[in-house]
Design a protein that fits this description.
The complex is a heterotrimer of chains A (about 260), B (about 700) and C (about 160). By secondary structure, chain A is of the alpha+beta class. Chain A is built from 11 helices and 14 strands. Classes of the chains: A alpha+beta (about 260), B alpha+beta (about 700), C alpha+beta (about 160).
Chain lengths: ~260, ~700, ~160
């Protein structure tokens, strides 16, 4: 399976990237890690006119803590998140969730921002980011804007990013002091697409839960830790022949994630 | 003994089909039908031809009679329709993915670009999806009434009487889904015509069957057709029959005067490579109150797909022939109702009918035991073919050469160890956990036909063995060298194996776990002859420089057997099936290389587990394959591997000088039966009678839930 | 586009299209056939090579992305004078390969894994191996080979 032909640019500056994305006469897509995009290109399910390769824009390659918040640049890889001591201590939910992303070979190349922008409902990081009240920083030639998780994810493989916009950074505030987090997922085989998953954050009497596999986008619930799994799952409108099993699976995964958060 | 051939594979120096470099090579891509069933109208190739880099486009009409449909295979005492697979579709397409046109270009990428530009007129027709009801559906092949591709029936003994006399009749319907063989190397071939001779390099299980099948399609005999098999990255049955695409590229190579390569991609392999299994069955067992099996009746509805390949009928026929399994059953009647469906055809896939047979009979035995209130293991013992009954002719007419089924059972009970598993199960049940233990016996029909070997001692004392067998992972370079070395009294390192060229040596091929029994025996015979010559001459074998012996070894079928046991748990909250332990006892006669034999068992077992846990080829109501990539069709990884213990029992076969049977498929045959019985055991107290594979979370969870809290 | 890629210490130049996959460049551009293509959608791992020492799926990279970069493929493992890398030797001893098609991908994944995890537990090994599919061996022998290799490579 070979991709359909496309033009290719590998700029070194963010400004050039944005200008290329702003082209109206072409369908332009961003290539970062390629772990989601290249399979689609190979199957010819994605047929952009032009690819803009982000990998040469060094200013986007960062993962750092600034003013207590974790700032994930567009070229930060899953592996960077996995290996970072700061992430492990300050944002253990992300460290835990990222270990479930595919396999090591995927994590070496795949980017966190790329995964979010791709918005695959089976992706782990969007769900984890959802309970951390993150802010998505978006740039285009027209300017910048900041989105919350509820504003970014619209549907299956769909975000509110305009064709000329690039997700340049994910800003993750420090979790509330004394809070605990947990992540759980279920896939048919190790590293396979998740059939269900849950990310939880518990801070005293307040719990946040986000579910993967409950719909085309992550679904967030807030409530008391004891109420949450059942209340969240009962609320879901699931369709299909396996709907009740999925509900039970999600309840189980939510309970698991919440237990880890409380532990 | 570790394998000598490993060095080139480990160093990345093996030569698989896509590694072969030839000057002026063109690449092929196929236009494939998006519809499961459609009338084929005009095909406009102008835009495709105009693309720079495109050398030619061929349709079925272009090939005409130059490439006839591949031969449909016959089955003993059965009726098969004349419904061979056309090389490129003519007036109709009959499965989504069927090749409609061939594009040849300077690169695969350009060939795919051009394929998209080929404009095909399709008039969609109604898909036919269920083999049970296909008879009433629109005809898929002119002249093939009731869409019946394969008809077979055999009755032996007083079946009516057995059922009339029975204290109980146990009935069950089964659905065994289709599977995708999915070798990591896809199919492929290179065709080159020089003068009168067409040479085809083919990623295949052997050169002989492509030689025969391409010969029929292209009208070429062995003097004008040569098939060469390079290193092959797995096959598991799916590279036994030559792909019709190969005949198409052969025509292209002839017309264009340049070699043409087709490297199948994974998407094509999912769509167009013949699938395995696919069987609906209704089975009845007539039993006495003491658990004696008096008779068996079965109707098999294989999901054959749209066409018959040379071996499409083999699996259901084999299932029918082995339906009585390890048991001494006096009366049996089996019918195979093989209707066409608008799906890619099926063909042999590791086990090829034996897994289905083991699954059916082993589930029936457990069900009978349950209905009679008896222990399943006791029912087995009561009905085994006795060790002194061999050679034993089954009601369906095959003769088991040797075996000791009770010994296999005892061995697996000790290996598991079953007593401990039963303790674990009972203790777990007290805690409310859903745990089960199951056993599955199996019979594997192997060997048969003939195989060739030439053993030659070179002047420098090296030994060169040419074999008609053809390895694709089995390790023949090592095993056959061992066999020859043993007979000749030399070191295995002094023996070199050559294979894979139809021009060098005719043969039958590598399938049905036959290589050691047949190919190995041919090698042993030829080597033995040389050894005798040396003895008679009073010299050592290595002094026979230039001497050669040829052997064509033939024998009847040999029958491997075994017993597998499984311990499973079903997680209540998610329905997930955990295989906690698997014990495998295989009797494949005399084992030549224990390390390699165990490798076969473990590999086959994991494929069998895949069938239980995650694998299923699914078609939707439009006949579209829903599981068309590794994203949707999962293969097990190392992380899912349960503990597996393997042991061998050896009851040598009297039918060949090695006493060998076959070890390549047992794991795939017995594992689903054992796991299915374990799952049923786990669910028995929940009022669940039977579950078909795959045993997915959703399926098991729903069953537990229906049973109530 | 003209690219220059260092593979196993040697420079390979070639003319490629933007859409040319790195796996195809390695195999047909640089003529290194040890890296195999199994799926072209990033699941089977047969195409695994190392980019700056890290395992990546070469079917999910464009050749142009490797311009000026340094890759290692399976051909770099065995000593040039002959013999086998300890990991390869372990594979042979435990019968961790049958058809051999997936093997280079496993070797490149594991070699990187053992550098980062010199004393892995069995559980860690199984998870690390999950990114490569094998249809022949049933994995048990591969796990044993990794354990054996880890012991030998770790020996001071």
């Amino acid at each position: 399976m070979k991709p359909a032909p496309f033009a290719y640019d590998a700029p070194r500056q963010l400004g050039e990237v944005l200008e290329l994305l702003a082209r109206e006469d072409e369908d332009v897509k961003v290539l970062a890690g390629g772990q989601s995009l290249v399979p689609l290109l190979n199957f010819r399910l994605a047929r952009p006119d032009r690819l803009v390769d982000l990998n040469g824009v060094e200013s986007l390659a960062y993962l750092r803590v600034e003013d207590g918040a974790l700032r994930i640049g567009a070229l930060a890889r899953h592996a960077d998140l996995e290996r970072s001591a700061e992430v492990a201590s300050g944002w253990p939910l992300l460290a835990e969730a990222v270990r479930h992303v595919g396999h090591p070979q995927i994590r070496v190349r795949g980017t966190v921002c790329g995964s979010v922008a791709h918005a695959d409902p089976a992706a782990e990081l969007p769900v984890a980011l959802c309970v951390l009240d993150v802010r998505f920083h978006v740039r285009s030639v027209r300017g910048s804007r900041v989105l919350g998780a509820d504003e970014l994810f619209l549907g299956f493989l769909t975000t509110s990013l305009e064709p000329d916009e690039l997700l340049v950074e994910i800003e993750v505030p420090a979790p509330p002091a004394g809070s605990g987090t947990g992540f759980a997922e279920h896939a048919r085989t190790h590293g396979d697409f998740a059939l269900g998953g849950a990310a939880a954050l518990v801070a005293g009497e307040e719990a946040r839960l986000a579910l993967l596999g409950a719909g085309p986008v992550p679904v967030r619930f807030d409530g008391a830790p004891g109420d949450l799994p059942d209340a969240a799952v009962a609320d879901l409108s699931l369709t299909g022949p396996d709907a009740e099993w999925r509900r039970a699976l999600l309840r189980e995964l939510a309970r698991d994630a919440l237990e880890r958060a409380v532990a | 003994m570790p394998r000598r051939e490993d060095v080139r594979f480990l160093r990345g120096e093996a030569t698989y089909l896509d590694d072969i470099e030839l000057p002026d090579l063109l690449e092929a891509a196929f236009v494939r039908s998006p519809f499961a069933h459609a009338r084929l109208g005009a095909i406009d190739v102008e835009a495709a031809l105009a693309l720079p880099g495109v050398a030619a486009v061929f349709t079925g009409a272009d090939l005409g009679k130059r490439a006839r449909a591949l031969p449909a295979g016959a089955v003993d005492d059965g009726i098969v329709a004349d419904a061979g697979h056309p090389v490129l579709a003519r007036d109709r397409v009959r499965y989504a993915g069927e090749a409609v046109a061939l594009v040849v270009a300077e690169s695969r990428a350009v060939a795919e670009d051009a394929a998209e530009l080929v404009d095909v007129d399709y008039e969609p027709l109604q898909p036919v999806l269920d083999p049970r009801t296909a008879a009433g559906m629109p005809l898929l092949h002119d002249g093939v009434a009731d869409n019946r591709l394969v008809t077979w029936q055999r009755t032996h003994g007083d079946v009516e009487g057995a059922f009339a006399a029975a204290d109980r009749v146990v009935s069950q319907s089964f659905h065994i889904p289709r599977l995708v063989a999915a070798p990591i190397e896809t199919r492929g071939a290179i065709a080159r015509v020089e003068g009168d001779v067409l040479t085809v390099w083919c990623s295949a299980q052997d050169p002989h069957r492509p030689l025969a099948q391409l010969g029929v399609s292209l009208g070429r005999g062995p003097d004008s057709l040569r098939v060469v098999v390079p290193d092959v990255g797995g096959a598991f049955g799916s590279k036994g029959v030559v792909a019709p695409e190969v005949a198409a590229i052969a025509c292209a190579a002839e017309d264009l005067g340049r070699p043409v390569r087709w490297t199948e991609d994974r998407a094509e392999n999912f769509l167009a490579a013949y699938q395995g299994r696919g069987l609906d069955a209704d089975v009845e067992l007539a039993v006495s109150a003491e658990g004696r099996i008096l008779g068996l009746r079965a109707t098999l509805y294989p999901d054959l797909g749209a066409y018959l390949y040379a071996t499409t009928a083999v699996a259901p026929h084999t299932t029918a022939m082995l339906i009585t399994g390890a048991y001494d059953v006096a009366a049996a009647s089996v019918e195979v109702v093989g209707a066409a469906t608008t799906k890619v055809p099926t063909g042999p896939y590791r086990g090829a009918g034996r897994p289905e047979a083991a699954f059916l009979v082993e589930r029936m035995v457990d069900l009978a035991a349950r209905e009679l209130g008896l222990e399943p293991l006791d029912v087995r013992r009561r009905n085994f073919v006795r060790p002194d009954a061999f050679p034993y002719e089954t009601p369906m007419g095959w003769t088991y050469d040797s075996g000791d089924f009770e010994r296999c059972l005892d061995a697996v009970l000790e290996l598991a160890p079953l007593a401990r598993w039963q303790e674990l199960r009972d203790a777990a049940r007290v805690e409310g956990r859903v745990v089960g233990v199951g056993v599955g016996m199996y019979i594997e029909r192997a060997g048969g036909l003939w195989e060739s070997a030439v053993v030659r001692v070179e002047p420098d004392g090296r030994v060169v063995v040419r074999t008609g067998s053809s390895p694709h992972g089995q390790g023949h370079e090592t095993t056959f060298a061992q066999i020859a070395a043993d007979e000749l009294g030399v070191e295995p390192q002094a023996v070199e194996l050559r294979w894979g060229d139809s021009g060098e040596l005719p043969g039958v091929g590598t399938f049905a776990s036959r290589s050691v029994a047949m190919g190995g025996s041919a090698v042993a015979s030829a080597a033995r002859e040389l050894a005798e010559r040396a003895r008679d001459a009073g010299v050592s074998v290595t002094d026979l420089g230039g001497a050669e012996a040829e052997s064509r070894f033939s024998s009847g079928l040999v029958f491997a057997s075994g017993a597998y046991a499984a311990l499973v748990e079903i997680e209540r909250a998610t329905g997930r099936l955990l295989v906690l332990g698997l014990a495998a006892v295989d009797d494949s006669g005399r084992i030549v290389n224990p390390l390699l034999a165990e490798g076969q068992v473990l590999g086959a077992t994991v494929q069998g587990l895949g069938q239980c846990l995650v694998e299923e080829a699914v078609h939707d109501e439009e006949g579209q394959l829903r599981t068309a990539s590794f994203a949707d069709y999962s293969l097990l990884t190392a992380a899912e591997l349960p503990p597996v213990e393997s042991r061998f029992v050896e009851t040598p076969s009297p039918l060949n000088p090695l006493g060998a049977k076959g070890i390549g498929e047992g794991g795939a045959i017995a594992t689903p039966a054992a796991v299915a019985n374990a799952v049923a055991d786990a669910l028995a107290s929940f009022g669940v009678r039977h579950v078909d594979p795959p045993f997915t979370e959703a399926k098991l969870w729903s069953l537990l839930r229906e049973a109530g809290p | 586009m003209r690219i220059s890629v260092e593979i196993n210490g040697r420079s390979h130049e070639g003319e490629v299209e933007p859409r040319t996959l790195l796996s195809d460049f390695i195999r047909h551009g640089a003529g290194l056939h040890g890296t195999h293509v199994g799926c072209e959608h990033g699941v089977c791992g047969a195409c695994t090579v190392q980019l700056d020492g890290e395992p990546v799926r070469s079917c999910l990279m464009l050749a142009v992305q490797a311009d000026g970069r340094s890759l290692r493929t399976v051909e770099s493992l065995a000593p040039p004078e002959g013999g086998l890398h300890p990991l390869q030797a372990a594979f042979q001893e435990t019968h961790a390969l049958q058809c051999g098609f997936c093997t280079p991908g496993f070797l490149m994944s594991i070699e990187a894994f053992l550098r980062e995890h010199p004393q892995p537990t069995e559980h860690e090994i199984r998870e690390a191996l999950a990114g490569n599919l094998c249809r022949c061996t049933g994995y048990k022998a591969i796990i044993e080979a990794v354990e054996r290799a880890a012991e030998r490579l770790h020996r001071p």
